[in-house]
Amino acid sequence: MGTAIFDYTVNGRVQERAGNGLPYAAPHGAFKCRPLSPGSAAPADEQWIAIACFTDAEWQTLVEVMGNPDWALDSKFGRPSGRKQHETELEQQINAWTADKEADDLMEELQRRGVAAGVIQSAREMLADEHLKERGYYVYLDHPEAGHTAYDGPPFKLSKTPGILRSPAPLLGEHTEQVCKEILGLSDEEIADLMVAGALQ
Question: How many domains does the chain have?
Fold first, then answer.
């Protein structure tokens, strides 16, 4: 919320919902690609790619990857302001182009050429992602009810304080007594009274 608060405080602007859009980037959104199973309409088979162009150079590279179609060479798309002004049309054209593309292949090509792009993955796909595996992103811990479960690890690793996950998600009320005694300093009688009153779980 920081950006929105500062924008209102300094500029008097009330930010509204913008979906995937950014005021200084176009295109900046999610585009549907070829489904995993040809002819399938199942949501599980859908493949999407996020593409973002922040500079004219990135836009020109995207145009080249798209094969320099006539519509993309129109002067109204030549500058960021024009692309933003005609963003709906721009996204429709890009959607038509990505519709028969394989999401992973397209992501790799765009990234290799310097255009920000990423496949939009389901939770299952993220668990199987080779890059996240190589980075050791997921940590598996044993939970008393959920069993051996994947948890998001630290989002970044620092050399002196790398961060670790010590325990799985707590059960409801698992640490109530510890918090009441060690942090709040309540006596056994006070805790018992609160439990009888239904204030503690």
Answer: 3
